[in-house]
Design goal:
The protein is α/β, with parallel strands linked by helices. It contains ten helices and ten strands.
């Protein structure tokens, strides 16, 4: 079972249909991506459980959306048979970091039921500043943001992460002109328990302004 965190809406919703459709919510990419389908079954039962577990905010059921690219593009190489139930929790872009962090805490009980919770985004994501030259250049502000967040995560300093915009100022703005790609991280950190460690993989930058650093939280 996977619960994926990505879709941006003005409310917090959870996909409740039995057969979510594949959504290609992007533009300007190769045809192969638009042809990709991920026909994984949904999980109305776990969607309902998620609504019951989250009391910090009112969670609504959504029967019209489906699995967008933040979910299926990650799961397709991991589980190509698409035979594991998947449902998706939307992220309310208008809410502060603490809102997402507190919901993440309440999602922790899903892990006890065998649910793999994936937060899909980027630690640094500024498409406007992309360097198309194909070199190994990384902007100083991108490296600074990546390094500072990694330090906070390693120390368990979630308070600084919740206040990152004030602490990092213009560096934060450059790293995330809009912070939709950072929101999923707050949920994952909210899930972390005191005895759980963080390990990293895919620690690289793409096109100077996108950090692909990924992390796993485990006991």
């Amino acid at each position: 079972m996977q619960c994926s965190l990505y879709n941006i809406k003005t409310d917090t919703k959870v996909t409740g249909m039995g057969q979510p459709k594949t959504i290609h919510d992007f533009g300007g990419f190769p045809k192969q991506l638009f042809d990709a389908e991920y026909p994984a079954p949904g999980s109305p039962e776990f969607a309902q459980l998620t609504k019951e577990l989250v009391t910090y905010s009112h969670i609504q059921t959504d029967d019209s959306w489906g699995l967008d690219h933040g979910t299926w593009s990650v799961l397709l190489p991991m589980y190509p048979l698409a035979n594991i139930p998947v449902y998706q929790l939307s992220l309310d872009y208008d809410q502060p970091p603490t809102y997402h962090y507190e919901i993440g805490k309440q999602l922790n009980k899903l892990r006890d039921k065998g649910v793999l919770i994936i937060g899909s985004g980027n630690l640094v994501h500024n498409l406007r500043a992309i360097d198309w030259s194909g070199g190994n250049k990384v902007y100083d502000w991108a490296k600074e943001f990546d390094t500072k967040f990694t330090e906070w995560i390693d120390k368990g300093d979630h308070a600084s992460i919740m206040n990152y915009q004030k602490i990092l100022g213009n560096t934060a703005t450059m790293a995330h002109p809009s912070y939709d790609h950072l929101l999923p991280l707050f949920y994952i950190l909210g899930l972390q328990q005191k005895n759980e460690k963080v390990s990293y993989f895919n620690e690289q930058f793409d096109m100077a302004s996108i950090s692909m650093k990924s992390l796993v939280i485990q006991a």
